[in-house]
Amino acid sequence: MLGGLPSPRKPVEWHGGRAVTRDGDDWTAEFRLGVSRAMALIEGKHIDLAILQSRSPSCGVNQVYDGTFTGVKIPGQGAFAQALRERGIPLMDAEDVPE
Fold first, then answer.
1. pLDDT tens, 76-94?
2. Residue 2 to residues 6, 29, 35, 36: CA-CA distances in angstroms?
3. Who's near 14: CB < 8 A, 6+ residues apart?
4. CA atoms within 13 A on the CB side of 57
5. What angle in degrees, to the nearest 10, is found between the helix axes of 79-86 and 28-42?
6. pLDDT in tens, 36-79
């Protein structure tokens, strides 16, 4: 939402380096803007761990959908997860949080 995406919104998957909907709407710029703004918000903060939503095109930690909108999951990370990892912040998938 920091990048200007509506909520709720159509599902988005990464395909060919682009964040697209099943209908072909390209929201790559909005995703990248959201990541940039989120990273600016945490600049200078000490973060012990980020717990992120599973398979999200922004926050997927271990897997993302393959871009075919068929439910197929592949190894990979969402855009925000990648940025956090590059900054050295430990990540955890929400599904891996102990009960």
1. 999 999 999 999 999 999 9
2. 10, 12, 8, 9
3. 20, 57, 64, 65, 67, 76, 78, 79
4. 28
5. 40
6. 999 999 999 999 999 999 999 999 999 999 999 999 999 999 99
Q: Name the E strands within the chain.
A: 12-15, 18-21, 50-52, 63-65, 73-75, 91-93
CA distance 81 to 64: 11
Question: 50: which 2 tokens?
Answer: 């980020």
Q: How many CB atoms lie within 10 A of CB 48?
A: 6
Length of the chain (residues): 99
Tell me which residue has tokens 């200078």: 44
- What is the bridge-based pairing of β-strands 12-15 and 73-75? unpaired
Query: In the structure, what pLDDT confidence band is assigned to residue 99 with cuts at 50, 70 and 90?
Result: confident
